Prior knowledge:
The complex is a heterodimer of chains A (113) and B (114). With 113 residues, chain A is mainly β. Chain A contains no helices and eleven strands. Chain A has strands spanning 4-5, 10-14, 19-25, 30-38, 45-51, 56-59, 62-67, 72-77, 86-94, 101-103, 107-112. In chain A, the strands form two sheets. In chain A, strands 2, 4, 5, 9, 10 and 11 form a six-stranded mixed beta sheet that branches. Chain A has a five-stranded antiparallel beta sheet with strand order 1-3-8-7-6, with no helix packed on it. With 114 residues, chain B is mainly β. Chain B has no helices and ten strands. Chain B has strands at 5-7, 10-13, 19-24, 31-37, 43-50, 65-69, 75-79, 88-95, 104-105, 109-113. In chain B, strands 2, 4, 5, 8, 9 and 10 form a six-stranded mixed beta sheet that branches. Chain B is globular, with a radius of gyration of 13 Å. The N and C termini of chain B lie far apart (33 Å). The chains are: A mainly beta (113), B mainly beta (114).
Amino acid sequence: DQQVKQNSPSLSVQEGRISILNCDYTNSMFDYFLWYKKYPAEGPTFLISISSIKDKNEDGRFTVFLNKSAKHLSLHIVPSQPGDSAVYFCAAVERGSQGNLIFGKGTKLSVKP
Amino acid sequence: GAGVSQSPSNKVTEKGKDVELRCDPISGHTALYWYRQSLGQGLEFLIYFQGNSAPDKSGLPSDRFSAERTGGSVSTLTIQRTQQEDSAVYLCASSLVRVLTEAFFGQGTRLTVV
């Protein structure tokens, strides 16, 4: 039973356009959310995070939006660049937990020049 | 080293054999995690070490899996009597604090059980 779901296994976007990666969760105890980016043959790298007390966090071209009532978050990348092509993982941490990250299955983003 | 180092980078083993995977975290990082990624799957939590506290082993899939962390630094993940379903990329991460806000992952060990 997946607690963090990324329903789109892949996404293709034209360079310069916006990329929107979606993530849904089922556990209402999650209170911290993170996005990681992974290139082939490399470990995931932390990208951006958001606490449940916020609904938006922005860092350069990357913005994460959190809709707690819908248990939904999204990562916006604008403008998209070919170097953004990677697998993006959504992850969540449960309040009061040891800090274990629960990951989604990832979405493979391809940005075409 | 500058980052999290895992060895070996690739391991092919015969079904039934034992394997040991090693993780050298970033110096000074008190939290250490093991995850694995099977083909087409997300990152599955295995085990977590934090300082001198008892490790959280809740993610280990069976008693064939064990891990230790010696001296609060290097960690070894051991899989006994390997099975084909153990084939995956095993990833180690470390961080300064309990929550993975600034966690750094190693490149992983690709384990193939034949």
